[in-house]
Specification:
Length: 739
């Protein structure tokens, strides 16, 4: 394989660089088997919303999917539409290399696709609320308040809300204020004298107060009202002599696609202070979308849009609450008798059968590679290992990259303990992890105060890799344990996201990991590694080498297969290589949760490509690259096949060298490929279609099967451990130990 790759590179040099400069993009790329990234993403979010209509999903869980759909869309507006809006202002707009569309054209198509999505969301929300009301969870609105309920709401407003709100009258002397990104505001037109027309009233919904307010009930139901609706029901007396007319709740989503490195660090400003300044700036960036809940006259909406500089198409009028994040707070109020009906059955991540809880974690990893598979298995072996190292006299250093950290992090507490115990603790904390910046800044400060060496990612390259290395001194020798993950070292998400972690004492991987941390500290992003594929320099070549190997095999008449599990596929170079593999006869199986700019099944282009997506109880997050008919080469990774990951981030792909661990990964992926309920298949037109079950096929949900498998494996291991313990001979007290 290596010889053929060298030959291929020599041939490329003989041909010289592809003469792309000056050639129109429409002639450079084949768009017959690719689709636009933004439209692919919207179809993914529609797939999330489809879970709200799935009657096999418990009722309250379906309501959560409506909320997830909205939060996904918020981030889409802030990042993707925000970024495209910036590009749309350029005189010469760049064209997307998957659809040949300009940023303006892409925004047009997104806005055309949104109204049907909002309609589906509203229908799902209303239907679910109706069913929940039948089961004793009732949301009240201002128009439905009567008797004691209205008295309670007015009393609550007078006692808790009125003292802290600041109603504003917007007139020529008081211009429209800066609305906080994602914040809720009540807006109304105000009746005024003849010489005062076009006045607006505005009240910010206080973020410091509970969003959900329980209303006392004698019926045994849980009756509640949202904070903004309490204000709405009492708004008439908020503006003095001005009388509110039409009224609504509004919410503005702003561009959050800000480049921290593009802003420049000011003189004598450390990077943490720089990031704090950037976060404040994000709150007042250009608005990209306006949501209105309620009825406002056109004359009322017009000055709001003008103040925000938004067009009519960037405005949506909806009849459901804005910001559905409150839904999660309702879960604790579900009656115990209804929890089984309304929620998923509780699942506790299981003990990994490869570990004995009574033995040193360090010794067990040194004995052989271990694989953790979240959320089916617990993260505790990793956390226990780091905690153990913090107090192990033989441990002298811990190095780790952190991207997203839990607010309450046992891991970080162990790192702090290690530093306080005299270990050399180095933490690369990525402060640019979008929307987790504040939490990461707080932990960086705490870690540094405890004595950890805290460094930050290189300029222009986020460190998205998930790697930890613990180094021990054993006499004159050094032993390294390396932990590599597909997802974050985050105790919270490890219970929600499907991810792998490899725990290994392999010397070669350990040496590569050591070089990786040394290179990071020196700002060298193009180091050479024997086992690891490290972006931005070494990850894509690893993928291309694997694909080229299978192409060579197919052309030689041998069985050839590639398997990828990803969150997203947008890298044009990788897409074209997959198409080349398909044309050569390589069978390409893919599980892609979200965006796929590659269209499968296109005659003569991607006939041998099959793409599935799984959306279910847990977020599919692991990345797997496997090459060979028998998957003889398997890598796990933190990286999706997106240009930002392969070329503009620090990512790691790591090989699964242990045959037993590799068999586990293959087994788990085979299970996911069997899913015929939660899985969808991507069509050549870019739509997600349900899997058609053959006659006699039983419904199969991969995530449910993996939960059952984890329980069975854990129980079997516990029984085996109990038998071993029972078989040990008992030693009578007072018996001297054997010589």
């Amino acid at each position: 394989m290596a010889v053929k790759d060298k030959d291929r590179k020599k041939d490329d040099k003989k041909k010289g660089p592809a003469p792309l400069e000056g050639i129109p993009q429409a002639e450079r790329y084949d768009f017959s088997y690719t689709q636009n990234r933004e439209l692919s993403w919207l179809r993914f979010d529609d797939r999330v919303l489809a879970e709200a209509y799935d009657e096999s999903v418990p009722l309250f869980e379906r309501l959560k999917f409506v909320s997830i759909f909205e939060s996904n869309l918020d981030e889409f507006f802030m990042i993707r539409i925000g970024g495209l809006s910036d590009l749309a202002t350029l005189k010469h707009q760049p064209r997307d290399n998957k659809s040949n569309l300009t940023p303006s054209e892409q925004i047009d198509k997104v806005f055309e696709a949104l109204p049907p999505l909002y309609a589906r969301q509203a229908r799902a929300f209303h239907e679910l609320e109706e069913e929940l009301a039948d089961r004793g969870m009732v949301r009240l609105e201002p128009s439905t308040l009567i008797g004691d309920e209205r008295t309670f709401v007015e009393g609550y407003f007078k006692s808790f809300i009125s003292p802290i709100i600041s109603p504003l009258v917007i007139d020529p002397r008081h211009p429209f204020p800066n609305l906080r990104n994602g914040g809720l505001y009540l807006v109304c037109s105000l009746a005024a004298s003849a010489d005062e027309s076009g006045l607006l009233g505005l009240i910010e919904v206080p973020a410091s107060l509970p969003r959900v307010i329980e209303i006392p009930s004698t019926t045994g139901e849980y009756r509640y009202i949202l904070l903004e609706d309490v204000i709405m029901s009492c708004i008439d007396g908020c503006f003095g002599s001005y009388e509110p007319q039409d009224r609504a709740v509004i919410r503005v989503i702003r561009n959050a696609d800000i480049d921290p490195d593009g802003e420049g660090v000011e003189e004598e400003e450390d990077y943490r202070q720089h990031m704090k300044r950037i976060l404040k700036k994000r709150l007042r960036l250009q608005p990209v979308y306006l949501f209105i809940r309620g009825k406002l006259e056109r004359e009322t909406v017009k000055p709001i849009r003008q103040a925000l500089e938004l067009s009519g198409r960037a405005t949506a009028v909806v009849d459901i609450p804005l910001d559905l994040g409150y839904v999660y707070s309702l879960e604790s109020h579900i009656p115990e008798t209804s929890r089984h009906e309304l929620l998923f059955d509780p699942f506790t991540p299981q003990n990994n059968p490869g570990f004995d809880s009574g033995r040193s974690m360090r010794e067990q990893v040194i004995e052989g590679d271990k694989l953790l598979f979240y959320p089916y298995e617990s993260m505790n072996p990793f956390l226990d290992l780091v905690h153990e190292a913090a107090y192990d006299d033989d441990c002298f250093s811990i190095r780790i990259t952190l991207y997203r950290v839990a607010k309450q992090s046992r891991l970080c507490e162990s790192l702090i303990a290690a530093a306080e115990n005299g270990k050399e603790v180095t933490v690369l904390m990525e402060l640019r992890a979008r929307f987790d910046e504040e939490n990461n800044i707080e932990w960086a400060e705490r870690l540094e105060e405890a004595g950890c060496t805290v460094i930050y990612g290189s300029e222009g390259f986020k460190c998205h890799s998930k790697i930890c290395q613990i180094t021990y001194r054993e006499g004159m020798a050094v032993t390294r344990i390396t932990l590599l993950g597909t997802g974050n070292f985050n105790e919270k998400t490890a219970k929600l996201y499907s991810d792998f972690m490899l725990m290994t004492a392999h010397p070669g991987i350990g040496e590569d990991a050591n070089s990786f941390f040394q290179n990071l500290s020196l700002g060298n992003l193009r180091g050479s590694y024997r086992y690891l594929g490290v972006a931005p320099a070494g990850l894509k070549p690893l993928i291309m080498t694997g694909l080229n190997r299978e192409i060579d095999r197919a052309q030689a008449g041998l069985p050839a297969r590639v398997f990828f599990k990803l969150n997203s596929l947008t890298d044009r170079e990788v897409i074209d290589k997959i198409s080349e593999a398909s044309r050569a006869g390589v069978q390409v199986e893919m599980i892609i949760r979200g965006i796929s700019c590659l269209l499968p099944g296109v005659p003569g282009k991607t006939e041998n490509v099959h793409i599935r997506s799984i959306v279910g109880r847990y977020l599919e997050h692991a990345r797997v690259y496997a090459f060979g008919e028998d998957a003889d080469t398997v890598y796990l990774s933190s990286a999706d096949m997106m240009t930002r990951n392969t070329e503009h981030r620090v990512e790691i792909a790591f090989p699964v060298l242990d045959a037993g661990v590799r068999a586990q990964v293959i087994q788990y992926m085979d299970i996911q490929l069997k899913d015929n309920v939660k899985a969808r298949e991507l069509t050549p037109k870019g739509l997600w279609a349900p899997i058609v079950r053959a006659v006699g096929d039983e419904p199969f949900i991969a995530q449910e099967h993996l939960m059952t498998l984890a329980i069975d494996r854990s129980n079997s291991a516990e029984k085996a451990a109990s038998k071993r313990a029972a078989a040990r001979p008992t030693v009578p007290m007072g018996t001297p130990p054997a010589a």
